[in-house]
Automatic annotation (TrEMBL):
Keywords: Cell outer membrane, Membrane, Signal, Transmembrane, Transmembrane beta strand, Transport. It comes from Tunturiibacter empetritectus. One of its GO terms (molecular function) is porin activity. Belongs to the outer membrane factor (OMF) (TC 1.B.17) family. Residues 1-20 form the signal peptide. GO terms for cellular component: cell outer membrane; efflux pump complex. Pfam families: OEP. This is Outer membrane protein TolC. It comes from the Bacteria. It is found in: Cell outer membrane. SUPFAM superfamilies: Outer membrane efflux proteins (OEP). The lineage of its organism: Bacteria, Pseudomonadati, Acidobacteriota, Terriglobia, Terriglobales.
Protein backbone atom coordinates (compact mmCIF):
# COMPACT_ATOMS: atom_id res chain seq x y z
CA UNK A 1 0.00 0.00 0.00
CA UNK A 2 2.90 2.38 0.62
CA UNK A 3 3.92 1.91 -3.02
CA UNK A 4 0.46 3.09 -4.06
CA UNK A 5 0.71 6.09 -1.73
CA UNK A 6 4.07 7.22 -3.06
CA UNK A 7 2.93 6.75 -6.65
CA UNK A 8 -0.12 8.95 -6.10
CA UNK A 9 1.90 11.51 -4.18
CA UNK A 10 4.55 11.77 -6.86
CA UNK A 11 1.92 12.12 -9.57
CA UNK A 12 0.21 14.92 -7.69
CA UNK A 13 3.50 16.60 -6.95
CA UNK A 14 4.22 16.59 -10.66
CA UNK A 15 0.83 18.17 -11.29
CA UNK A 16 1.06 20.89 -8.60
CA UNK A 17 4.65 21.50 -7.59
CA UNK A 18 5.11 24.55 -9.85
CA UNK A 19 1.53 24.79 -10.98
CA UNK A 20 2.72 22.68 -13.91
CA UNK A 21 1.54 22.99 -17.48
CA UNK A 22 1.11 20.48 -20.27
CA UNK A 23 3.94 20.38 -22.80
CA UNK A 24 2.72 21.22 -26.26
CA UNK A 25 3.42 18.83 -29.08
CA UNK A 26 4.45 21.62 -31.45
CA UNK A 27 6.40 24.81 -30.89
CA UNK A 28 4.30 27.63 -29.36
CA UNK A 29 3.66 30.83 -31.32
CA UNK A 30 4.47 34.08 -29.48
CA UNK A 31 1.61 36.54 -29.14
CA UNK A 32 3.74 39.29 -30.71
CA UNK A 33 3.98 37.23 -33.90
CA UNK A 34 0.21 36.90 -34.14
CA UNK A 35 -0.27 40.64 -33.52
CA UNK A 36 2.06 41.45 -36.42
CA UNK A 37 0.24 38.93 -38.58
CA UNK A 38 -3.21 40.31 -37.83
CA UNK A 39 -2.14 43.87 -38.65
CA UNK A 40 -0.85 42.68 -42.02
CA UNK A 41 -3.64 40.26 -42.98
CA UNK A 42 -6.90 41.18 -41.26
CA UNK A 43 -9.52 42.19 -43.89
CA UNK A 44 -11.23 44.78 -41.66
CA UNK A 45 -7.97 46.62 -41.11
CA UNK A 46 -7.24 46.46 -44.84
CA UNK A 47 -10.66 47.91 -45.69
CA UNK A 48 -10.18 50.76 -43.20
CA UNK A 49 -6.74 51.55 -44.62
CA UNK A 50 -8.07 51.73 -48.18
CA UNK A 51 -10.92 53.99 -47.06
CA UNK A 52 -8.40 56.28 -45.37
CA UNK A 53 -6.34 56.43 -48.56
CA UNK A 54 -9.46 57.20 -50.57
CA UNK A 55 -10.28 60.06 -48.17
CA UNK A 56 -6.86 61.58 -48.93
CA UNK A 57 -7.95 62.01 -52.54
CA UNK A 58 -10.85 64.30 -51.64
CA UNK A 59 -8.79 67.41 -50.87
CA UNK A 60 -7.30 67.69 -54.40
CA UNK A 61 -10.83 67.49 -55.78
CA UNK A 62 -12.40 70.20 -53.63
CA UNK A 63 -9.43 72.60 -53.81
CA UNK A 64 -9.35 72.64 -57.63
CA UNK A 65 -11.18 75.36 -59.55
CA UNK A 66 -14.52 74.32 -61.08
CA UNK A 67 -14.28 72.93 -64.61
CA UNK A 68 -14.02 75.64 -67.30
CA UNK A 69 -16.81 75.89 -69.88
CA UNK A 70 -16.46 76.23 -73.64
CA UNK A 71 -19.34 77.82 -75.57
CA UNK A 72 -20.27 77.72 -79.28
CA UNK A 73 -23.12 79.94 -80.59
CA UNK A 74 -24.78 80.30 -83.96
CA UNK A 75 -27.36 83.06 -84.52
CA UNK A 76 -29.58 82.85 -87.63
CA UNK A 77 -31.50 85.83 -89.13
CA UNK A 78 -34.70 85.58 -91.24
CA UNK A 79 -35.05 81.79 -90.98
CA UNK A 80 -34.65 79.06 -88.40
CA UNK A 81 -32.30 77.23 -90.73
CA UNK A 82 -28.70 77.06 -89.56
CA UNK A 83 -26.49 79.90 -90.85
CA UNK A 84 -29.47 81.79 -92.33
CA UNK A 85 -28.55 85.46 -92.85
CA UNK A 86 -24.88 84.81 -92.10
CA UNK A 87 -23.63 86.14 -95.49
CA UNK A 88 -26.01 89.13 -95.78
CA UNK A 89 -26.86 90.32 -92.24
CA UNK A 90 -24.72 92.03 -89.70
CA UNK A 91 -26.80 90.38 -86.96
CA UNK A 92 -26.13 86.75 -87.89
CA UNK A 93 -22.91 85.41 -86.45
CA UNK A 94 -20.89 82.43 -85.26
CA UNK A 95 -19.52 82.73 -81.74
CA UNK A 96 -17.00 80.89 -79.62
CA UNK A 97 -16.19 81.61 -76.02
CA UNK A 98 -15.06 80.31 -72.67
CA UNK A 99 -15.93 80.99 -69.07
CA UNK A 100 -14.57 80.10 -65.64
CA UNK A 101 -16.22 80.08 -62.22
CA UNK A 102 -14.11 81.76 -59.53
CA UNK A 103 -15.09 80.95 -55.93
CA UNK A 104 -14.51 83.66 -53.35
CA UNK A 105 -10.95 83.79 -52.08
CA UNK A 106 -10.32 81.20 -49.36
CA UNK A 107 -13.32 78.98 -50.08
CA UNK A 108 -11.37 76.26 -51.83
CA UNK A 109 -8.62 76.32 -49.22
CA UNK A 110 -11.11 75.90 -46.36
CA UNK A 111 -12.90 73.09 -48.19
CA UNK A 112 -9.53 71.41 -48.54
CA UNK A 113 -8.89 71.77 -44.82
CA UNK A 114 -12.21 70.07 -44.07
CA UNK A 115 -11.28 67.24 -46.44
CA UNK A 116 -7.82 66.91 -44.88
CA UNK A 117 -9.27 66.78 -41.37
CA UNK A 118 -11.76 64.15 -42.51
CA UNK A 119 -8.89 62.09 -43.93
CA UNK A 120 -7.02 62.46 -40.63
CA UNK A 121 -10.11 61.14 -38.85
CA UNK A 122 -10.30 58.16 -41.19
CA UNK A 123 -6.63 57.41 -40.56
CA UNK A 124 -7.19 57.59 -36.79
CA UNK A 125 -10.15 55.23 -37.16
CA UNK A 126 -7.79 52.69 -38.72
CA UNK A 127 -5.93 52.65 -35.40
CA UNK A 128 -9.19 52.18 -33.49
CA UNK A 129 -10.11 49.18 -35.63
CA UNK A 130 -6.58 47.81 -35.41
CA UNK A 131 -6.50 48.22 -31.62
CA UNK A 132 -9.89 46.53 -31.25
CA UNK A 133 -8.87 43.56 -33.37
CA UNK A 134 -5.51 43.30 -31.60
CA UNK A 135 -7.37 43.30 -28.28
CA UNK A 136 -9.58 40.46 -29.55
CA UNK A 137 -6.49 38.50 -30.62
CA UNK A 138 -4.94 38.98 -27.19
CA UNK A 139 -8.13 37.87 -25.45
CA UNK A 140 -8.42 34.74 -27.62
CA UNK A 141 -4.74 33.94 -27.19
CA UNK A 142 -4.83 34.27 -23.40
CA UNK A 143 -8.06 32.27 -23.14
CA UNK A 144 -6.55 29.58 -25.36
CA UNK A 145 -3.42 29.51 -23.21
CA UNK A 146 -5.59 29.12 -20.13
CA UNK A 147 -7.52 26.22 -21.68
CA UNK A 148 -4.32 24.52 -22.83
CA UNK A 149 -2.85 24.83 -19.34
CA UNK A 150 -5.96 23.63 -17.51
CA UNK A 151 -6.38 20.79 -20.00
CA UNK A 152 -2.97 19.59 -18.88
CA UNK A 153 -4.10 19.82 -15.26
CA UNK A 154 -7.16 17.72 -15.99
CA UNK A 155 -5.13 15.05 -17.76
CA UNK A 156 -2.53 14.89 -15.00
CA UNK A 157 -5.18 14.58 -12.33
CA UNK A 158 -7.08 12.01 -14.35
CA UNK A 159 -3.98 9.84 -13.94
CA UNK A 160 -3.88 10.61 -10.22
CA UNK A 161 -7.53 9.63 -9.85
CA UNK A 162 -6.89 6.38 -11.71
CA UNK A 163 -4.27 5.56 -9.10
CA UNK A 164 -6.60 6.54 -6.25
CA UNK A 165 -9.34 4.34 -7.72
CA UNK A 166 -6.90 1.42 -7.74
CA UNK A 167 -5.99 2.24 -4.16
CA UNK A 168 -9.66 2.39 -3.05
CA UNK A 169 -10.39 -0.86 -4.90
CA UNK A 170 -7.51 -2.59 -3.16
CA UNK A 171 -8.78 -1.41 0.24
CA UNK A 172 -12.26 -2.63 -0.57
CA UNK A 173 -11.06 -6.05 -1.71
CA UNK A 174 -9.30 -6.68 1.62
CA UNK A 175 -12.25 -5.40 3.61
CA UNK A 176 -10.63 -2.11 4.65
CA UNK A 177 -12.87 0.17 2.59
CA UNK A 178 -16.32 0.58 1.11
CA UNK A 179 -17.55 0.18 -2.44
CA UNK A 180 -18.95 3.71 -2.16
CA UNK A 181 -15.37 5.04 -2.01
CA UNK A 182 -14.62 3.48 -5.37
CA UNK A 183 -17.84 4.84 -6.86
CA UNK A 184 -17.16 8.40 -5.64
CA UNK A 185 -13.68 8.33 -7.14
CA UNK A 186 -15.06 7.02 -10.42
CA UNK A 187 -17.67 9.79 -10.50
CA UNK A 188 -14.97 12.42 -10.03
CA UNK A 189 -12.95 10.82 -12.83
CA UNK A 190 -16.01 10.92 -15.10
CA UNK A 191 -16.43 14.62 -14.35
CA UNK A 192 -12.82 15.23 -15.30
CA UNK A 193 -13.34 13.36 -18.58
CA UNK A 194 -16.38 15.57 -19.23
CA UNK A 195 -14.36 18.71 -18.51
CA UNK A 196 -11.66 17.52 -20.93
CA UNK A 197 -14.32 17.14 -23.62
CA UNK A 198 -15.70 20.62 -22.91
CA UNK A 199 -12.17 22.04 -23.03
CA UNK A 200 -11.62 20.56 -26.48
CA UNK A 201 -14.88 22.14 -27.67
CA UNK A 202 -13.99 25.58 -26.29
CA UNK A 203 -10.48 25.35 -27.73
CA UNK A 204 -11.91 24.46 -31.14
CA UNK A 205 -14.21 27.49 -31.06
CA UNK A 206 -11.35 29.77 -30.04
CA UNK A 207 -9.10 28.36 -32.75
CA UNK A 208 -11.78 29.07 -35.37
CA UNK A 209 -12.30 32.64 -34.16
CA UNK A 210 -8.58 33.36 -33.89
CA UNK A 211 -7.88 31.99 -37.37
CA UNK A 212 -10.69 34.18 -38.68
CA UNK A 213 -9.09 37.28 -37.18
CA UNK A 214 -5.73 36.28 -38.66
CA UNK A 215 -7.35 35.50 -42.02
CA UNK A 216 -5.92 31.99 -41.91
CA UNK A 217 -7.40 28.93 -43.56
CA UNK A 218 -9.63 27.11 -41.07
CA UNK A 219 -7.93 23.86 -42.09
CA UNK A 220 -4.51 25.21 -41.13
CA UNK A 221 -2.63 23.86 -38.12
CA UNK A 222 -3.99 24.86 -34.73
CA UNK A 223 -2.21 27.64 -32.87
CA UNK A 224 -0.22 26.63 -29.81
CA UNK A 225 0.25 29.34 -27.22
CA UNK A 226 3.10 30.04 -24.87
CA UNK A 227 2.56 29.23 -21.20
CA UNK A 228 0.72 31.79 -19.11
CA UNK A 229 3.07 33.56 -16.73
CA UNK A 230 2.41 36.41 -14.36
CA UNK A 231 3.45 39.85 -15.58
CA UNK A 232 4.12 42.24 -12.69
CA UNK A 233 2.38 45.61 -12.85
CA UNK A 234 5.17 48.17 -13.18
CA UNK A 235 3.18 51.28 -14.11
CA UNK A 236 1.26 53.37 -11.58
CA UNK A 237 -2.38 54.20 -12.12
CA UNK A 238 -1.74 57.94 -12.58
CA UNK A 239 0.75 57.18 -15.35
CA UNK A 240 -1.82 55.01 -17.11
CA UNK A 241 -4.42 57.76 -16.90
CA UNK A 242 -2.02 60.21 -18.54
CA UNK A 243 -1.33 57.68 -21.31
CA UNK A 244 -5.06 57.39 -22.02
CA UNK A 245 -5.28 61.09 -22.86
CA UNK A 246 -2.15 60.84 -25.00
CA UNK A 247 -2.42 57.49 -26.80
CA UNK A 248 -5.96 56.13 -26.62
CA UNK A 249 -7.10 55.50 -30.23
CA UNK A 250 -10.72 56.54 -29.66
CA UNK A 251 -9.67 59.76 -27.94
CA UNK A 252 -7.41 60.52 -30.90
CA UNK A 253 -10.34 59.99 -33.28
CA UNK A 254 -12.51 62.32 -31.21
CA UNK A 255 -9.78 64.98 -31.27
CA UNK A 256 -9.54 64.68 -35.06
CA UNK A 257 -13.30 65.03 -35.37
CA UNK A 258 -13.16 68.28 -33.37
CA UNK A 259 -10.48 69.61 -35.71
CA UNK A 260 -12.62 68.65 -38.68
CA UNK A 261 -15.67 70.41 -37.24
CA UNK A 262 -13.60 73.52 -36.50
CA UNK A 263 -12.62 73.61 -40.16
CA UNK A 264 -16.23 72.94 -41.16
CA UNK A 265 -17.45 75.97 -39.21
CA UNK A 266 -14.83 78.20 -40.82
CA UNK A 267 -15.71 76.85 -44.26
CA UNK A 268 -19.45 77.34 -43.68
CA UNK A 269 -18.89 80.99 -42.74
CA UNK A 270 -16.81 81.59 -45.86
CA UNK A 271 -19.53 79.99 -48.01
CA UNK A 272 -21.62 83.10 -47.38
CA UNK A 273 -19.29 85.14 -49.58
CA UNK A 274 -20.22 85.69 -53.26
CA UNK A 275 -18.77 83.67 -56.11
CA UNK A 276 -17.86 84.98 -59.54
CA UNK A 277 -17.81 83.84 -63.13
CA UNK A 278 -15.70 85.39 -65.86
CA UNK A 279 -16.50 84.79 -69.54
CA UNK A 280 -15.31 85.98 -72.94
CA UNK A 281 -16.83 85.42 -76.40
CA UNK A 282 -15.81 86.20 -79.96
CA UNK A 283 -18.58 86.52 -82.62
CA UNK A 284 -17.77 86.36 -86.31
CA UNK A 285 -20.11 87.96 -88.98
CA UNK A 286 -18.61 86.58 -92.20
CA UNK A 287 -15.98 89.33 -92.47
CA UNK A 288 -18.40 91.67 -94.31
CA UNK A 289 -19.35 93.32 -91.10
CA UNK A 290 -17.48 94.18 -87.98
CA UNK A 291 -16.97 91.29 -85.49
CA UNK A 292 -18.30 91.30 -81.96
CA UNK A 293 -16.32 90.82 -78.77
CA UNK A 294 -18.14 90.23 -75.49
CA UNK A 295 -16.79 90.09 -71.93
CA UNK A 296 -19.11 88.90 -69.14
CA UNK A 297 -18.69 89.04 -65.39
CA UNK A 298 -21.30 87.32 -63.18
CA UNK A 299 -21.68 87.42 -59.40
CA UNK A 300 -23.58 84.77 -57.43
CA UNK A 301 -24.84 85.79 -54.00
CA UNK A 302 -25.57 82.82 -51.64
CA UNK A 303 -28.91 82.86 -49.87
CA UNK A 304 -28.39 84.05 -46.30
CA UNK A 305 -30.96 81.65 -44.90
CA UNK A 306 -29.18 78.63 -46.33
CA UNK A 307 -25.74 79.84 -45.23
CA UNK A 308 -26.91 80.63 -41.68
CA UNK A 309 -28.42 77.16 -41.38
CA UNK A 310 -25.18 75.60 -42.61
CA UNK A 311 -23.15 77.58 -40.09
CA UNK A 312 -25.54 76.71 -37.24
CA UNK A 313 -25.43 73.03 -38.16
CA UNK A 314 -21.62 73.02 -38.24
CA UNK A 315 -21.46 74.75 -34.86
CA UNK A 316 -23.86 72.25 -33.29
CA UNK A 317 -21.76 69.38 -34.61
CA UNK A 318 -18.66 71.03 -33.15
CA UNK A 319 -20.30 71.23 -29.72
CA UNK A 320 -21.46 67.62 -30.02
CA UNK A 321 -17.97 66.43 -31.00
CA UNK A 322 -16.42 68.17 -27.97
CA UNK A 323 -18.96 66.59 -25.65
CA UNK A 324 -18.35 63.22 -27.28
CA UNK A 325 -14.64 63.58 -26.52
CA UNK A 326 -15.39 64.43 -22.88
CA UNK A 327 -17.76 61.45 -22.55
CA UNK A 328 -15.35 58.99 -24.15
CA UNK A 329 -12.44 60.29 -22.07
CA UNK A 330 -14.38 59.88 -18.82
CA UNK A 331 -15.41 56.38 -19.87
CA UNK A 332 -11.89 55.34 -20.84
CA UNK A 333 -10.35 56.77 -17.68
CA UNK A 334 -12.88 54.91 -15.54
CA UNK A 335 -12.24 51.68 -17.40
CA UNK A 336 -8.48 52.04 -16.99
CA UNK A 337 -8.85 52.65 -13.27
CA UNK A 338 -11.12 49.60 -12.91
CA UNK A 339 -8.69 47.39 -14.80
CA UNK A 340 -5.78 48.68 -12.73
CA UNK A 341 -7.61 47.84 -9.49
CA UNK A 342 -8.50 44.41 -10.87
CA UNK A 343 -4.93 43.65 -11.94
CA UNK A 344 -3.52 44.81 -8.60
CA UNK A 345 -6.01 42.68 -6.70
CA UNK A 346 -5.21 39.68 -8.88
CA UNK A 347 -1.50 40.09 -8.10
CA UNK A 348 -2.24 39.91 -4.39
CA UNK A 349 -4.38 36.81 -4.84
CA UNK A 350 -1.74 35.08 -6.94
CA UNK A 351 0.82 35.72 -4.22
CA UNK A 352 -1.56 34.25 -1.62
CA UNK A 353 -2.04 31.15 -3.74
CA UNK A 354 1.69 30.60 -4.26
CA UNK A 355 2.90 31.39 -0.76
CA UNK A 356 0.02 30.25 1.40
CA UNK A 357 -2.96 28.36 0.05
CA UNK A 358 -1.15 26.07 -2.38
CA UNK A 359 1.54 24.78 0.03
CA UNK A 360 -0.97 24.36 2.87
CA UNK A 361 -3.51 22.54 0.71
CA UNK A 362 -0.80 20.30 -0.75
CA UNK A 363 0.52 19.46 2.74
CA UNK A 364 -2.99 18.65 3.97
CA UNK A 365 -3.62 16.37 1.01
CA UNK A 366 -0.31 14.53 1.45
CA UNK A 367 -0.95 14.02 5.17
CA UNK A 368 -4.45 12.67 4.52
CA UNK A 369 -3.20 10.39 1.74
CA UNK A 370 -0.46 9.05 4.02
CA UNK A 371 -2.95 8.42 6.80
CA UNK A 372 -5.28 6.62 4.39
CA UNK A 373 -2.41 4.42 3.18
CA UNK A 374 -1.94 3.38 6.83
CA UNK A 375 -5.71 2.80 7.30
CA UNK A 376 -5.90 5.80 9.65
CA UNK A 377 -8.06 8.04 7.47
CA UNK A 378 -11.21 7.68 5.41
CA UNK A 379 -11.07 7.71 1.63
CA UNK A 380 -13.74 10.42 1.44
CA UNK A 381 -11.34 12.77 3.20
CA UNK A 382 -8.66 11.96 0.62
CA UNK A 383 -11.08 12.80 -2.17
CA UNK A 384 -12.13 15.98 -0.39
CA UNK A 385 -8.56 17.25 -0.06
CA UNK A 386 -7.82 16.14 -3.63
CA UNK A 387 -10.82 18.16 -4.84
CA UNK A 388 -9.79 21.20 -2.80
CA UNK A 389 -6.29 21.09 -4.22
CA UNK A 390 -7.61 20.66 -7.75
CA UNK A 391 -10.02 23.58 -7.35
CA UNK A 392 -7.21 25.70 -5.97
CA UNK A 393 -5.16 24.97 -9.06
CA UNK A 394 -7.98 26.14 -11.31
CA UNK A 395 -8.62 29.23 -9.18
CA UNK A 396 -4.96 30.13 -9.57
CA UNK A 397 -5.10 29.59 -13.34
CA UNK A 398 -8.30 31.62 -13.64
CA UNK A 399 -6.89 34.47 -11.57
CA UNK A 400 -3.75 34.43 -13.69
CA UNK A 401 -5.90 34.64 -16.83
CA UNK A 402 -7.90 37.55 -15.39
CA UNK A 403 -4.68 39.36 -14.46
CA UNK A 404 -3.10 38.98 -17.89
CA UNK A 405 -6.35 39.84 -19.66
CA UNK A 406 -6.66 43.04 -17.61
CA UNK A 407 -3.13 44.02 -18.62
CA UNK A 408 -3.92 43.27 -22.26
CA UNK A 409 -6.97 45.55 -22.12
CA UNK A 410 -4.90 48.25 -20.43
CA UNK A 411 -2.44 48.05 -23.32
CA UNK A 412 -5.26 48.64 -25.80
CA UNK A 413 -6.58 51.61 -23.83
CA UNK A 414 -3.26 53.31 -23.12
CA UNK A 415 -1.00 52.28 -25.98
CA UNK A 416 1.60 51.17 -23.43
CA UNK A 417 3.49 47.87 -23.51
CA UNK A 418 2.71 46.13 -20.22
CA UNK A 419 3.20 42.45 -21.08
Amino acid sequence: MNVVFWTAALMLASAFSAFGQETAASAPTPLSQLLAEVQANNPQISVAEHEARAARQVAPQVTTLPDPKFTYQQLSVGSPKPFAGYPNSDFAYLGVGASQELPYAGKLRLRGQVADRDADTKQAEVKVIGAGIADAVKADYLQLAYLQDTLGIFRQNEVVLDQLIQDATAHYQVGQGMQQDVLEAQIKRTKIVHEITMHHQQMGELQAHLKGLLNRDQESLDIVTEDLTETPMKVASDELLVLVKKNNPQIQVDAKVIQKQDAQVASAKREGKPDFELGYMYQNTDRKYRDYYMLTFDVRFPRKKRVDAEIAGAQEKLIASRQTLDAHLAQQLAQVQQLYVEASSDEEQLKEYREGLAPQSDAAYRATLSAYASNKEQFTHVLSYFTDLLNLKFEYARTLLDHETALAHLESLTGATLR
